Each structure stands twice: as C-alpha cells, then as structure tokens.
Hints:
By secondary structure, the chain is α+β, with helices and mostly antiparallel strands.
Amino acid sequence: MADRAHRLPENADGPFFVDSTCIDCDTCRQIAPATFGETGEISYVRIQPRDAAEERAAYRALVACPTGSIGAASKQGASRAVEEFPWPLAPGVWYCGFNSRKSFGGNSYFVEHPAGNWLVDSPRYVEHLVRRIAQMGGLRYIFLTHRDDVADADRYAARFRATRIIHRLELDAQPDAERVIDGREPLELAPGFVAIPTPGHTRGHCALLYERQFLFTGDHLWWSRAHGRLTASRDVCWHSWREQVASVKLLEGHQFEWVLPGHGERAHFPGGRMREELARLVEVLGA
C-alpha cells in the first residue's frame, strides 16, 4: 500500500490518497472515475468516495494499481476488493485486475470458454488470481497482443501449462512461446477466436476478436474519455503511424460490439453503434 508520508498534495482530504510513486497509467481512473482524477502527469484523489459503491470502486482501484500508489485508512476494504477479481464485464468475459508495472499498468482479460479458457495479455502473478483461475477451470491459451504487455505471462503459462500465442515479430518478448503467428492476414486460432494483425504501435501487434463481439485491442485503439470517441495515439506509436492508421481502417471489415484495450478506456456499443464509432475514428485519422 502507498506511503502516506509521500502523499501527493493534490489529493482531497480524507482516507484515500495517491502517493508520489504514481506512474499515471490510468488504471484507477478507469475503475473509479468518480474518485480519481488526473493532472496530466499523475493521478490523484479529486473527490473522496461519497457512498458505499464509490468506496468499493476506490478499493478495487487500490488493488489493481500496478505500483501500489494508492493508500487508504483501512486495509479491510482492500482485502474485500481482492476477492472481487476477476471482475465480470459480460457473460464469460472478465477484467483480471492486478495490473502489472511490467506492462505500464496494462489491462488483461480472462475469457471463460468450454473448450478451454483464455488469458489476453498478462496481469501480475498473484496467488489470489491464480487460485481463482484454477477454480474457473485453469488456462488453455494466453494470447499476447504485443511485446509491451506480456508481464508475467511465462509464469501463468508454466502454472497452467497454457499455450502462449504471439506474433513472430514480437517473439523476442516471449522467445519460448508455444505458438507463433506469422504474416498479416487474420487467422482463426480456435473456433470463435480470430487473431487480427494490427501493426503500427509495434511491428507485430495483433488484436484478438472473440465471437464477433469482443475485440481485445492491446495498444492499438481505445475509448477516450477526453474526446468522447474511439482514439489511437501517434505519441505512443513505437513503429509506424502510417501502418497503425491503415490497420485501424482494416478493422471496418470486422464486426464487434466491445473494445477491450490494454491501455485506455473500454467501450461497449451494441448494434451498429460500434461500426459508426469506428468509422468516425477512421475519418478523424484520415485513413
């Protein structure tokens, strides 16, 4: 837990606070937007929780924080929050929590499936999450969108004897991965699961489309609270912005209702609304 002696001066007075170890990864603001704000360089407590629901969300943010930068007056709420992860997003799809500093606080997801469960990118390796995954049937596959968000994937793979899947151009991040994707064409990995190469952020970046409903986008695109739309960022494009823009446009050929990113806000728009939002992004990017 955070150190009160290094409490940031921006915090509102009260039991919750953020200390100076914050890396501004956005995890807390995604989980508890009513409580946490941003200055552009760090997160801070802008308003102390006003009811039980906001307090529970703040404790979930405390548990998920990759750097342990959030503190609170009571540890009991944190213990209860640990038990709430993985957090359900939709039937069979869960947010893992326990974000890892190794992936700059990137989100990871658990997909419960009768033919074998999937982990999309990796959280911190923590015993509670390992135990819950085991109770839910273990892991068969670990899909890694790109090199930045592998975190503790090797430890989860070893614990569950799971098959790690990664593009060859990202392989040096997990050189002993059990399955390697090649090329730039969409590839069905298992019934209902399609890997879509989306180069740009990195050379071998891939998204994962599940049941034409859930698109796990890694660091390719995400929902922006500030702009109120889907977005992608040239500032965090490590390989080729031209290729990233082109691969955003290619997503118009796929159907999905959820955007579940590694970094950035999640989005769910049923029906044709997501297609409209994607078309809006393509227009903004000039693709």
